[in-house]
Amino acid sequence: MRLAVNIDHIATIREARRAREPQPVAAALMAEMAGAQGITIHLRSDRRHINERDLELLREVVTTKLNVEMAVTAEMLQIALRTRPDQVTLVPERPNEVTTQGGLDVGAQSQAIKDIARQLAEAAIRVSLFIDADPEQVRRARQAGAHAIEINTGPYADAQGDARLAALTRIADVGRLAARGDVEVLAGHGLSYLNVGPIVAIPEIVELNIGHAIVARAALVGFDRAVRDMVALLAPAGLR
Ligand code: PXP
């Protein structure tokens, strides 16, 4: 299973002081050296952490896979077509949210998503849709032409006991459904060193996007060690 490290919060630390450091591009290189197989950023409409200069620099240096999360807007489409990340993940975005709240309602925006997905695909940019663990959203994502889905693991991460098991089962079921339809299955949101194990055990999921937990650990033990610790947890059980 591949780890894509979300480095938004490296930029959050920089923006807390409107300073020049830390630079997300430095974190991206360190993450790749520590075994990450992808770098993810969310270019928010309000540019509260990652900005376009970060995206341009990252496009220059990232050699694994650069995945840019963005809202379904004409502005973001133009930025993606200009900067050409390897993958775009379309996400819902609400102005004052602390972090992404839930997956896309693909049906409600199907024409806009289809149009954007087609233009990205024509530019050889992979398209992933961030969706809740809901079979209807998988069907809609496939109809919209997505190459991949990213299943929202937030509800699993937030739940306890039986509710957590139920959320995990929904993720596994949706993963099977999507993989049968030839859609690549990714997952992320709220994953940590403590809760990632049962997600790693789902065979259809090939990549995880993890940000907050890694940057939080990095603040205390260093970025290299924080990434390596997570890479180790994603290794096949026999190699751990
Ligand atoms: N996937 C998506 C679509 C996200 O919006 C985020 C948060 O930016 C993540 C994954 C990573 O979540 P976390 O920071 O909780 O690991």
Major sheet details: 8 strands, parallel, barrel
Count of separate DSSP helical elements = 11
Please bin the fraction of helical residues: 40-55%
Oligomeric grouping of the chains: single chain
CATH topology: TIM Barrel
Strand-helix topology:
Elements: E1 2-6, H1 8-16, H2 24-33, E2 38-42, H3 52-61, E3 66-70, H4 74-83, E4 87-90, H5 110-122, E5 126-131, H6 135-143, E6 148-152, H7 154-158, H8 161-180, E7 184-188, H9 197-200, E8 205-210, H10 212-221, H11 223-234
Parallel strand pairs: 1-2, 1-8, 2-3, 3-4, 4-5, 5-6, 6-7, 7-8
Helix pairs in contact: 2-3, 2-11, 6-8, 10-11
The chain binds pyridoxine-5'-phosphate.
Pyridoxine-5'-phosphate binds at residues 6, 8, 42, 69, 89, 91, 99-100, 130, 150, 188-191, 209-213.
Q: How would you characterize this protein structure?
A:
The mean pLDDT is 96. By secondary structure, the chain is an alpha/beta fold. The chain is 47% helix and 17% strand. The radius of gyration is 17 Å and the shape is globular. It has an 8-stranded parallel barrel with strand order 1-2-3-4-5-6-7-8, surrounded by 7 helices. It has a single domain (2-235), classed as TIM Barrel (Alpha-Beta Barrel), CATH 3.20.20.70. It has 11 helices and 8 strands. The site of pyridoxine-5'-phosphate has 19 residues, from strand 8 and helix 10.
